[in-house]
């Protein structure tokens, strides 16, 4: 079969030049949907943060509260803090308190989550309800209950411990010695934080594939090996964000320490960063120095968060 001359010319002609692809337009709807939230966040947090940054470079004390113009002092507030031994003492205590409390919360929370995965449903539901009640309890109510437990005159803890042979703790005040003060504070905060960790980890455990568990059991993995080599690596993203949140919350703790100081002895020996900054600003009227201390805590918190943010960026790019 032969082709005609016009058809042959069409077949031999070079293809028409391809048009450059137009860049795909991104939909605008997601940006429009998140715009109100971003605007509210900028308005609600932008002004207080800007005011805090500005005051950290000014001498803003009681005189400025009565109309005197604040004086610009540059980095003097930061230098005053960083050369003050009391600030470093509070910072070291706060970091140690944060590390111990967050670690205890994570270990106990993971243990309770594993326990809930293996116990019958009726006992699991009972435990979950109890933890939800403890977690939902307001801080003031929590501290009132704990004050009744550790009270030096009528406390249940001293009464029960006195039944041990050779132990007489009736009238013992747990809040006078700084070591026992922070131990009590750590126990209270751990008790209040464990339900959030336990329920979050348990929710992650329910999503672990049964096929993965069966394969590990066929390979001879025992209970502890299953947890360490299979379950925890799968739950790593959840555990990282939970640990990060606990570190941030325990670094910025304020209400529990303030209320415990009201129940027992008060003073610089019993301060963490939250109460220390409050004392600088509200107690002593050094609002500029307090603002500088708050900014240092903010930088420290960002440094703690950067590890998780970097992991999120890597996961998004991969």
Automatic annotation (TrEMBL):
The chain crosses the membrane at residues 29-49, 86-115, 127-149, 179-205, 226-249, 287-309. It is a multi-pass membrane protein. It comes from the Bacteria. Residues 1-24 are annotated as: Disordered. It holds the Pfam family BPD_transp_1. It is found in: Cell membrane. Residues 91-308 form the ABC transmembrane type-1 domain. Its main location: membrane. Keywords: Cell membrane, Membrane, Transmembrane, Transmembrane helix, Transport. Belongs to the binding-protein-dependent transport system permease family. This is Sugar ABC transporter permease. It comes from Demequina muriae.
